[in-house]
Amino acid sequence: MRRSIHLSGLALGAVLSLAAPLAMAWGPLGHSIVADLAQRQLSPEASAEVQRLLAPDHTRQLADIASWPDMIQDDPGQAGLWQQTRRQHYINFGSADCRYVPERDCRGGQCVVAGLQHYVEVLSDRKLPDAQRLQALKFVVHFVGDEHQPLHDGYRDDKGGNAYQVQFDGRGSNLHRVWDSGLLGTRHLGWQAYADKLAAEGPLGAPDVNAAGVERYAAWAEASCRITRDQGVYPAGHVIEASYVTSRLPIAEQQLRIAGRHLAEVLNESLGTAGGKP
């Protein structure tokens, strides 16, 4: 059962109940918001190619496929793909400097930086079968979202906050789950209404990263890691109070907006007329 809190300072007892069995990046709500924000920013050429690739799934919305890479863990028919990709949803930085060192932080390509790079390359290759490119699109949409959830880019030895126990709404939970869904749930909005709210805040400033390819994806992960390190993500006393929600929810929402822009950039480059591999 869900309950919500108004950010004006109602008691924490009105905060969202965290009963989900497994923490996943942003949860379906956050991933759908990122996907929708990105779709609003696609070029006409990229939008048309997205529509064409999505058609076999009987959808026109990126939001409908945004959580698929998490959902396959419960599908026996996708067990092999889940085992192949499950460690590509996150990155564990080796130190608090939040600097990406591939041989230390992404051995064997098993991190979100390398996972995103791989699936962008597949998506961009128009010689590949559409079914393979559609699967790549699903991973690209999801992994960009993952990279912008700060606890998917951690530096502490606590499994991205999954092992960091907290009290939230008078119940035991963990910090990762709070950032996946708890903070966003306090708005008590569906994904479409939430995306409308964030889109109405207007465009973001100038692009924050000028690098391309894997260097760009690494820079996004490093920026998320610095949020975990510098912006009070870990609560004092392991208690999520109303003041924490008020001050950290805007950080989470800004990450959603940035992820939407970054995803649109990747898709416009990969699927636009001048993008992709012919």
Automatic annotation (TrEMBL):
SUPFAM superfamilies: Phospholipase C/P1 nuclease. Residues 1-25 form the signal peptide. One of its GO terms (molecular function) is metal ion binding. Gene3D superfamilies: P1 Nuclease. The keyword Metal-binding applies. Pfam families: S1-P1_nuclease. GO terms for biological process: DNA catabolic process. This is S1/P1 Nuclease. It comes from Frateuria aurantia (strain ATCC 33424 / DSM 6220 / KCTC 2777 / LMG 1558 / NBRC 3245 / NCIMB 13370) (Acetobacter aurantius). Coiled coil: none annotated. Keywords: Disulfide bond, Endonuclease, Glycoprotein, Hydrolase, Metal-binding, Nuclease, Signal. CDD domains: S1-P1_nuclease (cd11010).
